[in-house]
Automatic annotation (TrEMBL):
This is Acyl-CoA thioesterase. Transmembrane segments: none annotated. Belongs to the C/M/P thioester hydrolase family. PANTHER family: ACYL-COENZYME A THIOESTERASE 1-LIKE, ACYL-COENZYME A THIOESTERASE-RELATED. One of its GO terms (molecular function) is fatty acyl-CoA hydrolase activity. Residues 22-152 form the Acyl-CoA thioester hydrolase/bile acid-CoA amino acid N-acetyltransferase domain. Gene3D superfamilies: Acyl-CoA thioester hydrolase/BAAT N-terminal domain, alpha/beta hydrolase. Residues 214-432 form the BAAT/Acyl-CoA thioester hydrolase C-terminal domain. The active site is at residues 243, 358, 393.
Amino acid sequence: MKGFVTVSHPNIVIHDILSRIDEPINISVTGVQPGEVITLHLIKKLNGERYLASKASYTADQEGIVDLGRQSPVQGSYQSVDHMGLFWSMEPVHLTEEIKCYIDQHQPSEPCDELSPQVSVLLLEMADIIVAHQAITRQWMSSDIENHSIQEEELIGSFFYHKDRKPRPAIIVLGGSEGGINEKTAALLASHGFSVLAVAYFGIEKRPKQLREIPLEYVESALNWIKEKKEVQPGGIGIHGTSRGSELALWSATLFPDIMATVSLNGSAVSFCGIVPWTEEPTLPPAWTYQGQPLPYLQPDNPIELALECKEMWVNRKGNPLRLWHDGLSKNVELLEKATIQLEKMHGDLLMVSGLEDESWDSATLSALGFTKKMQAHPSGRSKHLKYEGAGHYIGIPYLRVISTDQRTRQQLAQASVDSWQETIKFYKQVLCK
């Protein structure tokens, strides 16, 4: 890009310059010569000198229009027709000072928290000149949602509810091995008509520093708390767990009858050990406990040779050792059976989401071990196990930057996030909305 100039004819058309993160938007360019090639750049500032950007070039149709919902790029950061391709195909970039100043004009201040709106700038380039631009703001929750922080001895989290405070179905949200509070998923779920409580169970002040020996009483307390809120309608409660948090969600669904709708995202129906450094220590701690007792897990005895191999991979950055670790622990068939969460004891319905190229563990197989038994014991048309070709461990909120070790399957992962999120909303509404 050589510079900027004002041209009256080419125009970026976006009907929803203010939208929610999980909502698709339509982008088009008008006023271009038929057959002319244009390039769109989407740039977002993260913080400091960190930026994400994507770009793609398109050929205008016979009417001089480029419609991202109908046309594939001739080249760019994504390939096929996808009206949100510029969003999920973003990557870290180094910008020129000229472009930085221009982007910073639209986003002068850094986000103050993780729920701050995301502002991106769309630039239209023709013949190496920027001829039009448009800022796009994406929000984490609808304008009618309130967020209340909870800091109690038995409960730490964030409660998302509608401003009218009318009773709605409730969902509890549990994050994964990153720790803290998964507010983003909670905020978006609340925007679809639910009262949502995101619960912290480790990795935050007043909670364990590591994911080990986590008491299920944290979820039990959350259930007791949320049932008393006037913003929550009586009846069954939903729960949503991501990655390692799926184990916590599934254990809770088997132990607490109030839970009637469970979503396991990139998860496992097999319970693994707590997350601790790979060492030569002879034993591994449990991840979960209830009433002071460890819940069954893979595995109490530390496979030291495997642990040291994973440690070497991690220290020397030789790939991702997590898949090797979990596959190694899963080889003991007898222990695997004992550590499989007894989903046949669940009282409600279940939606499991797995990528068939999961880099961290074999989510599809590990989830199926419990799902099959549940369906044999309690057949249900509302329970599903969704498995996505080409998708890895980071299926999640749609239209965000895709993180994948295989660049060839990024679009499959992006589509898996769109489809599974729609299925998640539909599942909760079918089971919880009376």
